[in-house]
């Protein structure tokens, strides 16, 4: 049915897949506590940056008054 070469190739494929399954560490869907803490700190930092730059980006009243006089 299968030639000797095909059997060897299939065996090599199965062995390599089994080897990869054993070597690759299992991953979990949940982040670790340290990752969650780092994420919370990053979100707080981004919130601070957003507040700071939203203040800078707002148009000033005196600028609109000066341009309307021209």
Automatic annotation (TrEMBL):
Keywords from UniProt, A to Z, are: Secreted, Signal
* InterPro entries according to UniProt: Pancreatic_hormone-like
Say which family it is in.
Answer: Belongs to the NPY family.
Q: Which organism is it from?
A: Leptotrombidium deliense
What Gene Ontology cellular-component terms does the record carry? extracellular region
Q: Using the record, list the residue span of the signal peptide; answer none if the entry has no such feature.
A: 1-29
Where mainly found?
A: secreted
Q: What is this protein called?
A: Neuropeptide F
Q: Name one GO molecular function term.
A: hormone activity
Superkingdom of the source species: Eukaryota
Localisation:
Secreted
